[in-house]
Specification:
The complex is a heterodimer of chains A (113) and B (114). Chain A has 113 residues and is mainly beta. In chain A, 0% of the residues lie in helices and 53% in strands. Chain A has no helices and 11 strands. Chain B has 114 residues and is mainly β. Chain B contains no helices and 12 strands. Chain B starts with a strand and ends with a strand. Classes of the chains: A mainly beta (113), B mainly beta (114). At the A-B interface, strand 5 and strand 9 of A face strand 5, strand 6 and strand 11 of B.
Chain lengths: 113, 114
């Protein structure tokens, strides 16, 4: 079982709609969770991180964390064509694994005009 | 802004060649990483360094070695390149402990082994 799981997509979203991305993780002791965006041929860039249960909002992006259910999600409101990218979920390990992010394989999002 | 620089963006090497990928960060970060990214497999950690001259194996260290002689520089070495090492290689750095301990990536190095 992979440590961080994401649906590969593609997730097709009409322009202006909400894109909802999900991520589950296996290490119950994980403390920090990150969402990265990666455009084709480019390196990942951080969107936001979250470490407390609940919601965290930053502009059009909202991260949601539920540690009891071991999932983290990302909502993109008012989706724009420029949001078309692959979104990577990453989880920070604990103990000996601290500092070494485990990445999901990513969800491809396609925003259609 | 954090800057992680990978000096070689595109390389083509022959099977059996020794390959050096260099990475420099300018934010005095303790931690540095080398990942490779392949379609469908996502990002996989090759090696990790949390201090000068210190290194730890990641998930896929076979066929690779690393060197960290200075805090700002972390090199990935392919002792004898093989075609299955054709990939995009990403260097990254992060500060030491902290809950929002973000990893910052370089622009990537595309390596083709023929």
């Amino acid at each position: 079982q992979k440590e961080v799981e994401q649906n590969s997509g593609p997730l097709s979203v009409p322009e202006g709609a909400i894109a909802s991305l999900n991520c589950t993780y296996s290490d119950r002791g994980s403390q920090s969770f990150f969402w990265y965006r990666q455009y084709s041929g480019k390196s990942p860039e951080l969107i936001m991180f979250i470490y407390s249960n609940g919601d965290k909002e930053d502009g059009r992006f909202t991260a949601q964390l539920n540690k009891a259910s071991q999932y983290v999600s990302l909502l993109i409101r008012d989706s724009q064509p420029s949001d078309s990218a692959t979104y990577l979920c990453a989880v920070n390990g604990q103990g000996d694994s601290w500092g070494k992010l485990q990445f999901g394989a990513g969800t491809q999002v396609v925003v259609t005009p | 802004d954090v800057k992680v620089t990978q000096s070689s963006r595109y390389l083509v090497k022959r099977t059996g060649e020794k390959v050096f990928l260099e990475c420099v960060q300018d934010m005095d970060h303790e931690n540095m990483f080398w990942y490779r990214q392949d379609p469908g497999l996502g990002l996989r950690l090759i090696y990790f360094s949390y201090d000068v001259k210190m290194k730890e194996k990641g998930d896929i260290p076979e066929g690779y070695s690393v060197s960290r002689e200075k805090k700002e520089r972390f090199s990935l070495i392919l002792e004898s390149a093989s075609t299955n090492q054709t990939s995009m290689y990403l260097c990254a750095s992060s500060p030491t402990k902290g809950r929002g301990n973000t990893i910052y990536f370089g622009e990537g190095s595309w390596l083709t082994v023929v």
